[in-house]
Prior knowledge:
Immunoglobulin-like
Amino acid sequence: xxxxxxxxxxxxxxxxxxxxxxxxxxxxxxxxxxxxxxxxxxxxxxxxxxxxxxxxxxxxxxxxxxxxxxxxxxxxxxxxxxxxxxxxxxxxxxxxxxxxxxxxxxxxxxxxxxxxxx
Length: 118
């Protein structure tokens, strides 16, 4: 979704930087469901004053020629904040959840997860 603005998925260090989206594959139209985005799920990010995740943003893009909706933002401060966000959301049509994480040293990283709607 963010193209050349983000690091490529095969870049070294992805284990600590790529936001992992934890959500159901299929949901019911208009019903709330849980979403969690974790940065550093495979390998913990250091989160020190010198090297930390600055924030996580979550977007939803419905199939078709629809706008991208911003769902949530987390501004994280180093040392005491864990690099994850948990929320409840609902959708009416199938599409993709997109997550974007920002590291103060290594830049932007993204991931996406398909959501089907019954």
